[in-house]
Amino acid sequence: MNNKVTYWVEMSDYDFDTANAMLETKRFLYVGFMCHQVIEKILKAYWSNVCDEPPLKIHSLSRLAEKTGLDENMSEEQLDFIDILEPLNIEARYPSYKERLMKSLDAERCKYLLQQTDKLRTWIKCKL
């Protein structure tokens, strides 16, 4: 792995640990946000592995997967999960969305997000 790929993988791993810490402290809003960050960064690791140019400075998981062609190898379940994570980046940042999002995130939902995030990041890591 080159240095750019290693950088993104390490950042993704750090964010996964942070997401778990947020669950332990019941900061459910940030569990969702960090799960998005985990997948965004592992997708940027994949991008750095298969593309010559640096990753786009975007937060759209579906667009990152599409631009690398990885989406063509993803299952429907994986693509559906990306759709679940996609809004968690934006909605966690803005007060108008925060309250609604906080109501939808509880311990069980966050455990599910973490499990699915781990499955997807592990699958992408295997492609590096």
Characterize this entry briefly.
This protein has 128 residues and is mainly alpha-helical. Helices cover 77% and strands 0% of the residues.
Question: Largest sheet, if any?
Answer: none
Characterize the quaternary organization of these chains: single chain
Unreliable stretches? none
Gross morphology is: globular
Proportion in helices: over 70%
What's the Cα radius of gyration? Answer: 14 Å
Strand content: under 5%
> Helices and strands: which structural class?
mainly alpha
Number of strands: 0
Mean pLDDT: 93
The helix/strand series, from N terminus to C terminus, equals HHHHHH
**Cα separation of the termini:** 8 Å
Put simply, the count of helices is: 6
Polypeptide structure, described:
- The chain has helices at 3-24, 28-50, 61-68, 76-91, 95-104, 107-126.
- It is mainly α.
- The model has no long low-confidence stretch (mean pLDDT 93).
Which helices and strands, and how do they pair?
Layout: H1 3-24, H2 28-50, H3 61-68, H4 76-91, H5 95-104, H6 107-126
Helix pairs in contact: 1-2, 1-6, 2-3, 2-4, 2-6
Tag the structure with descriptive keywords.
about 130 residues, mainly alpha, single chain
